[in-house]
Amino acid sequence: MQLQSNKDAQSLRKNGYVVIEDYLSARDCDNMYAQAMNIIEQIEYDENAIPESGLQIGYDEMDVRIRGGRDYGMFDIFHIDTAIDHLREFKHDEKIMDIIVEAAGREFVPQSTNLYYKNSNLTTRGPHHDTMREKYKSFVYLTDVTEDSHGPYCYIPESHGPSVGQIVRTFGKNKLAGKKRTDNVLFDPEKAEKLYASKGTLIISNQSGVHFGQPQSEGYERMLATTHIEPA
Q1: Model confidence pLDDT, tens digit, residues 15-72
Q2: How far apart are the C-alpha atoms of 42 and 153, rounded to whole Å?
Q3: Does residue 12 have a pLDDT over 70?
Q4: CA–CA separation, 105 vs 18, rounded Å?
Q5: Rounded to an integer, what distance in angstroms lies between the CA atom of residue 61 and that of residue 216?
Q6: Residue 9 burial (CB < 10 Å; 0-12/13-18/19+)?
Q7: Long-range contacts of 38-43 (CB under 8 A, 24+ apart)
Q8: For helices 5-15 and 94-104, what crossing angle results, to 10°?
Q9: What end-to-end distance do the CA atoms of the chain give, in Å?
Q10: Which residues, 6+ apart, have CB-to-CB distance to 27 below 8 Å?
Q11: In whole angstroms, what is the distance from residue 129 CA to residue 170 CA?
């Protein structure tokens, strides 16, 4: 697969995200899935006693968070690249950084690489911004996410880069409602695109845009690796 810096950057700049198929081979994804599941299966915890704030567990060089709340039971493993060699290359892929820098018009640098794993996650947080400032994630599906049951990533096109007025209205409405200040209040969730894709697909996403994960159906899973990318 050949990343097309100019074309992909234009899509990222306009829509807030870009989808790039066949970034990794199915075989590489299957190998990384097996390595990740080996790690997950060795982590000891009481799955019926996860607090609202989640559990924090140290494991080797990684920090493991098992989420509570609406993402109950989801694994969020920080620094997964210390355990899976192929993800070190993903974290430092210069072609991904070229796309982001061209879209943003300034320098960005990769931070931590995480693994997200959901299985039968029947509830998720609703539409929200991660931040109101420019920040990106690059992530690759390690399992097929080809139908609603898998819990696809969803994004409202052109909801990124909110104005000062939009930020003030969002924070104010959420404060009055007692919600998290970055919950979506301005954009129609029905306009979100569900980003279905086969394993190995790369998605680059501006996290100031409105996004959310679709709830899964019982017995379905989704695994992805993601790199947090911040201004230099």
Answers
A1: 999 999 999 999 999 999 999 999 999 999 998 889 999 999 999 999 999 999 989 9
A2: 27
A3: yes
A4: 16
A5: 30
A6: buried
A7: 39/77, 39/80, 39/83, 40/75, 40/77, 40/117
A8: 50
A9: 27
A10: none
A11: 10
Q: What pLDDT does residue 22 have?
A: 95
Residue 13: name the closest of 87, 100, 91, 141 by CA.
100
Residue 2, pLDDT score: 62
Length of the chain: 232
The DSSP call for residue 200 is T
DSSP assignment string, 93-122: -HHHHHHHHHHHTS-EEEEEEEEEEEES--
Identify any residues that bridge with 58 across adjacent strands, giving them in sequence order.
63
DSSP 8-43: HHHHHHHHSEEEETTSS-HHHHHHHHHHHHHHHHH-
Please report which residue ranges of 54-163 form alpha helices under DSSP H.
85-91, 94-104
- In this structure, the dihedral spanned by the alpha carbons of residues 95, 100, 104 and 106, taken in order and rounded to 10 degrees, is -60
CA dihedral 100→104→105→111, nearest 10 degrees, is -50
Q: What is the mean pLDDT of the chain?
A: 95
